Amino acid sequence: MMKSLNTAATGMQAQQTNMDVIANNIANVSTTGFKKARAEFEDLLYQTIKEPGAQTGINAVSPTGVQTGLGVKTGAITKDFTNGSSQVTKNAFDIEIQGPGFFPIQLSNGQIAYSRDGAFKKGPGGALVNKNGLALQPSISIPADATGVEVSPEGQVSIITGLNTTPQVLGQIQLVNFINPAGLKSLGGNLYIPSPASGVPQQGNPGQNGLGVLAQGQLEMSNVNIVDEMVNMISAQRAYETNSKVIQASDQMLQYMNNLR
After folding, report:
1. Is-cis flag, bond preceding 104, omega within 30?
2. Strand order from edge to edge, sheet including 185-188
3. Residues 65 and 158 in one domain
4. What is the pTM of this model?
5. Which residues contact 241 (CB under 8 A, 6 or more apart)?
6. 106: buried, middle or exposed (CB in 10 Å: 19+, 13-18, 0-12)?
7. Chunked in runs of 10, what are the mean pLDDT values of the chain (261 residues)?
8. Which domain holds residue 231?
9. Rg of the Cα trace of the chain?
10. Are residues 197 and 101 part of one domain?
């Protein structure tokens, strides 16, 4: 059977994966703190008919070889952790990370996950939680009688209660960073957990040890550029179509061979 049939099929499969990644980027264009992904590909093994530099005669070697590629496969899908645009909300519990870092979030099983989504709410007990009710760590509890909440760029949380105009320090928001954020494992729900590729979490106060600072009343939006994704989508579509044409052409060539008498 002609190798081109299978080779072009791997090309179609690769472009399907590419389109899946692009579709997820476009679907999350309005997701708070979402980081776009990029599919990366690598060629498969080669069938070597003649080695490059093979002996072709006395004191003569082949300047090139004869190697036929067998297709392509998905090598990686990489997250791009560049900062997204800022959206001013003026909500006291909306907090944006300006620069590197993640908010530690405690999952229902006690494990700590990490998020760039700073759209926090006040839970039933006053603790700051994300939209799924998972608590920010270390826990920050806002008293019921608090009339004002202030979060400094360095993460210090202060409140004003009753008629007292002097802010009272309530707690400290901390951030976590990783040597290789692209190695984090995505859980969905704007959450990540560490993996052996990401390295261990390095926790500290905002503005220290390379961590970003906080901006209250703002949210970091998705870093997806819709124009770039549309261009990538058209390119993937054309590549998929071209690979299908290769399969059609190879099939026609096989028909010619079968019709030989």
Report:
1. no
2. 103-106, 112-115, 191-193, 185-188
3. no
4. 0.89
5. none
6. middle
7. 87 97 97 96 91 84 88 96 95 96 96 96 93 94 90 94 82 96 95 96 95 96 96 97 94 85 65
8. 3-81+226-258
9. 27
10. yes
